[in-house]
Amino acid sequence: MPDQRQQAIKQAGLKSRRAMVWLRDHRLPADPVCYTIAYEYLHSERPQFKQQIDALDIGDADYLDKIRSVYQDCIIKQDYQKLAMSGDIGNQYVSEILSLLLKSQDKIHHATGILDAVHMEIGGSAQAKIKVAEKNSEPLDSSTQPVGNKDDYVAVAENANKDKLTSALDFNGLKQSLVAAIKYPENFPISILRINLDRFKLFNDTNGQFMGDAVLKNVVKTLQNQLKGSDLTSRFESDEFIVLLPKTGVKDALPVADKLRNKISTLVLKKKNSSVALKFTVSIGVAEMKTADAFESTLTKCKTALARSKDLGRNCVNKES
User: What is the mean predicted confidence (pLDDT) over 242-249?
Assistant: First the structure.
């Protein structure tokens, strides 16, 4: 009996680790929702659920949105007791991992409690729509009276949160900097560029994560070298970046975006001990933020423009309609 339990514990641990690897391979955040999706995808006997996941394109700008929608439809609305992660040993490991991901929750010992806690974490009803633009975000607050000058946001950006791999601003760091910028009317309009690496999963799968990381680092380096010191570069998602161009309308932002696109398309990487040239491209959506409260709506416009660039064959730039 003890041997059986030890074997069950080992198997549960392996399942949890496989779920975390699945998240990495699909470039999804290790949050409670995505972890649950990964665990169920790998370890449940639910072909319809798996077909919905397989039908998604990891390169789509709204991939994470769609993953969360599948979570709402196929997990929140289903019988918790039918989940693959149900069971004493499964609950033990899943509760340990999700208690770390949820952070604010104590250990949870049953699948029902786990899913309820995840649902509370993301908020709203089973029909609530979770937007990528809202991750880690609260409405920008520009109500505080500015102290200093219109370029103070540059200093804020230097000390703001950074992405560990590329050293670009992370999304929260970008918002910290933007809060400082929007206090000054002189910084408007602000153009936003939403930049997505074309077919990055295929590149990663073909050439390995080391080369994929090299691509991400080189893209950020190129963006920073080509932009002015007062422009802001951030890594938004695994293969997506956001650039802010203060004091720049969309008309002037378009040639900047196309210059960035063209420069990135000329970059060449080579594997060690290989003469094969590896190249990559980006698609870009551009929109103009005219007021301090328009950040998320402008991001949405960028997302639409980016989708248009992909529909037109990728490696191009489009603006808000």
Answer: 97
pLDDT at position 106, please?
Answer: 46
Cβ-defined contacts of 149-154 (< 8 Å, 24+): 149/184, 150/181, 150/184, 150/186, 150/187, 151/230, 152/180, 153/177, 153/178, 153/180, 153/181, 153/187, 153/232, 153/246, 154/229, 154/230
Q: Mind listing the pLDDT tens digit for each residue in 278-307? A: 999 999 999 999 999 899 899 999 999 999
CA 8 to chain centroid: 34
In the chain the domains, ranked by start, together with CATH numbers, are 2-130 (no CATH), 136-319 (3.30.70.270)
Token couple for 317: 């730039």
Whole-structure pTM value: 0.59
Q: What is the mean pLDDT of the chain?
A: 80
